[in-house]
Design brief:
The chain is an all-alpha fold. The protein contains 22 helices and no strands.
Length: 557
């Protein structure tokens, strides 16, 4: 998901004056339709994704391979996978609208905070999350919570995280299916079915290895597509003062300001605060990339690579969007169709198909990584609690369960996605963008801060209190309070207040009611020590089958 809640603000920007758009291109109804060459590129892409899944199938022998690549993933592949799994089609719709309307603030208030958050997380979170696998031998990011807190805490975070992800991924299916419908004319439901089935095939049979390898291929495709669009736009700027002089054009007035409109300082700080947790493991799929490397040092290198990519690559993608008011006239008030219109107008067939594949690559990367993460949470954390049979799963039966869970998760998310135009879910994409950012904090705070020594006194009471209060704060701020405030509560507060409430209560309750037992302190000590010689872990056993303690070593201050 990536870029989640900022897209909500993209739905209500000011209309750009038509008088500023002299010389722009209007949509040509027949210009952007895909021809045989474009279809060949798209079908070829789908075929390669399936082939990678089939090849990766040979590398998956057990649940450790399926969920964490057995701890054998190279740091550079993990870093690229981490980067790619943070994008979706929202980049080319919602954020294209923000760039069309406001300019460079789309970078300053989105990808820059993500890059900074991941850079901080490379030191603070990545090594510790890796040690969950290499030292505690778990396969799910939430699996350690049973011993760090207790079983009710683990189950509360697992169930709420799974339910949120189903709706989150549904919105992503709807977004990419909408783009596919624009370019090909197929229906929304057909687009959901096509993308969901292709993604399901490769991520179900190949696990995290398939996810990472397809994301590598998708990164290469997006590199080619992004550079092609960048070059095409730069070549068009000669009539507008060239690469540097173009900023003086009236249509780009204010586009060079870093913070503008609703994207001010409060928004930037809130976004940085949220993304620090979300992109370092709070949404689970990024945590798996850290767990997949061989040791903590490699996980930190992976995070640093992802941070660099988030700092550099979005500039290449955003530049054409910043220039879009000079080249096309958006047909939608929010400007969300501007990038698609540029693609139609500027690129020849073949490259048009490649850019469309780029849309798919980001969304499928994020959805497949989400599916794998939720399958890990269900098979490792939930199923053993609700089923005695699940507690007896061996290597083969556990792997079968992992694949079945992945299929079920994808099917549920696709079913929800088909309802986006129904009365009950007519605003689902807007709601989900807000929900993911707002509800991520209460789920991520106990998981992420529970790894750190300064929060060792916060136990299950602090974790459950912060989780429940954060959810309640989200409902209160977004609905009753917002309904009674003229114009509604600003979005930056709607999504940041729940996280702030969870953070404060997690710390305060931990201080007032410390629950730092020797067993819990031992867990913290294991993930904070620097002995990474263990390398790839053996096949982990379900958390419910192990002792609730991992030792009684007293943690250091």
């Amino acid at each position: 998901m990536s870029g989640h809640f900022a897209t909500r603000l993209a739905l209500t920007p000011l209309l750009r004056s038509a008088s500023l758009l002299s010389g722009v291109h209007k949509a040509d109804p027949g210009r952007g339709h895909m021809n045989g060459l474009d279809w060949s590129v798209l079908i070829g892409y789908f075929a390669v994704m399936v082939a990678i899944g089939v090849w990766s199938h040979k590398r998956v022998d057990n649940v450790s391979d399926f969920f964490t690549a057995g701890g054998r993933m190279p740091w550079w592949l993990s870093g690229i996978s981490h980067h790619m799994s943070g994008y979706s089609a929202v980049m080319f719709t919602g954020y294209a609208g923000i760039a069309y309307t406001y300019g460079v603030t789309s970078f300053v208030t989105w990808s820059f905070p993500i890059a900074l958050g991941i850079a901080v997380g490379s030191k603070l979170f990545a090594p510790r999350i890796n040690r969950l696998r290499s030292r505690l031998h778990v396969a799910s990011p939430l699996e350690y919570l049973k011993n760090r807190y207790n079983l009710p805490t683990q189950q509360a975070l697992a169930w709420s995280g799974m339910l949120l992800k189903i709706v989150d991924v549904a919105a992503k299916w709807a977004a990419i299916a909408t783009l596919l419908s624009v370019f090909t004319g197929i229906s929304l439901n057909q687009g959901i079915l096509i993308t969901g089935v292709i993604t399901g095939i490769y991520c179900t049979i190949g696990g995290l290895w398939a996810d990472a390898l397809t994301e590598l291929g998708q990164f290469v495709i997006q590199l080619l597509a992004g550079v092609a669009m960048f070059v095409a736009v730069v070549m068009k700027l000669g009539d507008h003062g060239g690469f540097f002089g173009v900023w003086d054009e009236p249509a780009l007035q204010g586009h060079g300001k870093p913070l503008v409109g609703p994207y001010g300082t409060v928004f930037l700080l809130a976004f940085l605060f949220i993304k620090l947790f979300e992109y370092n493991g709070g949404m689970l799929n990024q945590a798996q990339r850290y767990m997949a490397t061989s040791n903590a040092r490699e996980a930190a290198r992976s995070a640093r690579l992802s941070a660099v990519l988030w700092l550099v690559w979005p500039v290449v993608l955003f530049f054409p969007m910043w220039m879009s008011p000079l080249l096309v006239e958006s047909q939608k008030p929010d400007g969300s169709d501007s990038y698609g219109l540029m693609t139609e107008q500027l690129l020849p067939h073949g490259l048009l198909g490649l850019v469309i594949v780029g849309f798919f690559s980001h969304t499928m990367a994020m959805c497949s990584s989400d599916a794998n993460a939720i399958a890990a949470v269900f098979t490792r954390d939930v199923a053993p609690v609700v089923s005695a049979r699940a507690r007896a799963w061996g290597e083969r039966s556990g792997l079968v369960a992992a694949r079945v869970t992945t299929v079920v998760f994808l099917a549920l998310s696709m079913a929800v996605a088909t309802q986006v135009n129904s009365p009950a879910f007519k605003d689902i994409i807007t709601v989900v963008i807000k929900w993911v950012a707002g509800l991520m904090g209460p789920i991520a705070i106990p998981m992420m801060l529970g790894l750190l020594r300064p929060f060792r006194r916060s136990g299950p009471t602090a974790a459950l209190t912060s989780w429940a209060a954060g959810l309640f704060a989200f409902w209160l701020v977004n609905y009753p309070i917002s309904w009674n405030v003229e114009g509604g509560v600003p979005l930056e507060y709607q999504v940041s207040v729940p996280l702030a409430v969870s953070l404060v209560l997690y710390v305060v309750v931990g201080y007032l009611k410390p629950e730092d037992t020797p067993e819990r302190l031992a867990i913290i000590e294991r993930v904070n020590t620097d002995d990474d010689a263990s390398g790839a872990a053996a096949v982990p056993t379900p958390a419910q089958d192990r002792d609730d303690t991992v030792g009684r070593t007293r943690v250091k201050d």
